[in-house]
Amino acid sequence: MQLIIYRYYADKETTVGKLILTSKEYTYEEIGKSSFRLFNTILNVFSCNTIELAWKSNQKNISCIPKGLYKLELINSPKFKEVLHVLNVPNRGGILIHKGNSYKDIEGCILPVSKIEITKTVYGVSSKLAFDNIMKHSSNINSLIIIDNL
User: Fold this and answer.
1) What's the average pLDDT block by block, 10 residues per block, for the chain (150 residues)?
2) What does the alpha-carbon distance between residue 148 and residue 120 come to, in Å, rounded to a whole number?
3) Would you give the end-to-end CA distance of the chain in angstroms?
4) How many angstroms separate the CA atoms of 6 and 9, rounded?
5) What CA–CA distance (Å, rounded) separates 136 from 74?
6) 17 within 8 A of 6, measured Cβ to Cβ
7) What is the pLDDT of residue 30?
8) 3-class secondary structure for 39-90?
9) Residues 48, 126: Cα–Cα separation, whole Å
10) CB neighbour class for 118 (10 Å; exposed up to 12, middle 13-18, buried from 19)
11) How far is it, in rounded angstroms, from Cα 89 to Cα 23?
12) Rounded distance, CA 147 to CA 35, Å?
């Protein structure tokens, strides 16, 4: 199984994406240049939204990670308990997929949320629900592809 995030909105603080969990494993080349319309046709097991920090040249603790293909592993974090750890991020470490509803809850990690609300800032709704749905399949999820239209 694989997670794919299609980033579609960014402001000075946050990046917003749509995440799908798919049973098929894709290469970055197969999916990397997909349009949002094509992305939405991929058969998926589950989908939700994501919140990440804004792109700031992959700087530690203040930027989202670069688009690309990453391996994932299930770990126990002292702070967040069981989470998915994003591996092989260039010049970065400790990138997790965990619960949270605001960019203020992260230092470079990825927050799955059920719904996005954009007012003066971006907020997620029901992160626990989205995260728990991903974690039901966590032992079978091997990789993450991040693509963007930014």
Assistant:
1) 94 94 88 73 86 95 95 94 96 95 91 92 92 95 88
2) 23
3) 26
4) 10
5) 12
6) yes
7) 84
8) HCCCCCCEEEEEEEECCCCCCCCCCCCCCEEEEEEEEEECCCEEEEEECCCC
9) 10
10) exposed
11) 23
12) 10
H-run or E-run covering 95: strand 95-97
Q: What is the pTM of this model?
A: 0.92
Partners of 55 in beta bridges: none
Q: Which residue has the tokens 């949002």?
A: 36
Tracing tokens 């997929």 back to the chain, one arrives at 97
Q: Are 83 and 19 in contact, with CB atoms under 8 Å apart?
A: no
Radius of gyration (C-alpha) of the chain in whole angstroms = 14
Cα–Cα nearest to 66, from 89, 33, 95: 89
Note the Cα 33 to chain centre separation in Å.
17
Residue indicated by tokens 């719904």 = 115
